[in-house]
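Side project, low priority. Logging it here so it doesn't get lost.
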Amino acid sequence: MTSIGLQAQTIDTYFLHFPISKYDTIVYKRIIETLDKNNLIHVEDYYPNGQIQMDAYYSNFDKNVKEELQCNYGTNTKQGRYKEWAKNGQLIYDANYKNGLRDGLAVSWYENGIKESEKKWNNGQLNGTCKYWNEKGDLEYDLTFKNGINQSPETVSYQYITYLPTSYASNALKEYPLLIFLHGGSARGTDTLDLYDAGPFDQIYRGRNFPFIIVAPQCPKNIRWSTENWFENFYSDLIKEYRIDTNKVYLTGESLGGSGTWYIATKYSDKFTAIAPMSGFTRHMDYISENIENLKKMPIWAFHGELDNVVPVEETDYLINRLNDINSQVKYTRKKSVGHWIHWLVYPENELYDWFMSYDKRNNK
């Protein structure tokens, strides 16, 4: 594939060993073309079978890195057209970037060729009409965003799963701390079994016991924790259904759920005693930064891996720098040599849960 109307300075062929899990690696054939015009770098990645996987333009590029479409990892900065294909040859993503941020119309498709979404972006935030279809081609959402916020959110109820401490049934008078876990993007949908794939419920599945009531709501496919008004109904249901100590309510989440933790805590700061967001976007909407004062008295422990190639670590850096000026109860674990999977280092250990339990609103007034 050649670039029409552009004069190439150099063309380099490189083989990128890209780990998709600890058990498997894809070797992409990568063709890197340095262009005279606008000092852009044209990059094409190919699957081992010869099928093109990515066609993109960058203003800065590290040939050893393969980041996700929404991420600017390290020195990589997307600039212009960006396209991805599935292994079966189906185009699955087509968007435009400006200074590393999505800008303009972005379209995605399922691997069966049915359109999945059309989104309008402006400087990395959703702005304008956004539509989402299911794999049968049925339109599920037709929304209008401004600065990343849905302008007509519906009030809905999300399904959720619950863990009760072993003493809950026998101790009928005791109120228990509540830990709310917001899952990442891959657990969205309608199958609650997916909620056991990570976080506290992964630990519960392995037989671990906790002193909390732990609840994990499930976000519908395609949308984010900030798209609909779900928290009011969810929290009201929990208070009615379970014996909850409202002075000890904690919120945590990873990736999509990390972003959701920032948003929900900012919007409903009076409900929470302490929060622990991990690896989440923070600048995809103005709402969080514009309302950061709501978190000035909130104990916060944030986590992010420096090598995250899905959500850049700068997303958490940005809010932590803002919070350090107004909040003396902020901890930040910024792990070297760790990627987007930092939550696998945190949730299996005791330290975060002990930290949560050390905070009680009755002692922090």
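Brief comment: DSSP finds seven helices and 20 strands in the chain.
Revisit when time allows.
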